[in-house]
Amino acid sequence: MNDNILEGGDRRIRTIADLAEMAGVSPGTVSRALAGKSLVNAETRARIQALADQHGFRPNQMASRLRTRRTGVIGIVVPLGHERRQHLSDPFFMTMLGYLADALTENGYDVMLSRVIPDAVDWLDRVVDSGMVDGVLLIGQSDQYDAIERVARRYRPLVAWGVTLPDQVHAAVGTDNAQGGLLAGQRLIERGCRRIAFLGDISAPEIRQRHDGVARAMAQAGMEGALMQLATHLASDVMEQEIAAHIDALLEQGGGTMPIDGIVAGSDMIAMTAVRVLADRAIAVPDVLPVIGYDDLPLAAQAVPRITTIRQDIAAGARAMVDALFVRLHGGEAGSVVLTPELILRETA
Fold this sequence. Notes:
single chain, alpha/beta, six-stranded mixed beta sheet, 13 helices, 43% helix, elongated, disordered N terminus
């Protein structure tokens, strides 16, 4: 039996040439029709597509990608310069990744995910020059702002989640972190807090801006220079130990009582961990020590007590990142987007 003949006498279509012969057109016309090109009139396109559907024909994606010099893949990269022990399972990464993947796959792109420890200065060059991706989305800038700027000067389809600074080259989408920190600081001051501590690693630009926003709120209230900085990493395997060490040192300093009366955390995960550490030491939140997080992850509303936090709209941010990337992929201009933060009042403050 001829391999190209199916039971019942139907012919199996294996190639564009087979489909072209059946449709009575050239292979080039079939290729353009299946790609939706307007060079082929609508009636012919519809007839060719109907034949392809009827016979279950799918174009060879690899060959198509070789012809167009497109991979159909977008790289989603998580650079971990300042937080090398942080895992992709971190709830913020997973939330952002989910929204980005949804938007990309709905637009017909596949996703290549990379967690990068930037040990070499050319870590991002190797990603964009690999030939494996059509564009790159960075979840965070880490402490790699300068490296991202350098690559963005020559590689356009690159968009990061993070801060936007004056004269910035690369497109970034993120929250006004300084304004978010200001909102958190103002909320604690409204509650009567005067000795506020900030938990976070301020070597990362976003966290630094959140810290500076809290400091500005305190300065506006006549407490300039009073913010206590307690270095706390985002990596889950060290976060709890660091926070516990900070709280124990403060208790010792205060002779068994807390010398601070409010905490702003650089993330919801830090805030939730701080609440647990405080509960282990019978320090009531918020009665003795109110706590405010940052992000408004779904977990923040499910924690006990529920976390007061600064909301950054991660879903809207992911959509803005993908929109900007597609504009840049097609040669257009797409600048940075700064989202407005919102104070979400819950039980911890």
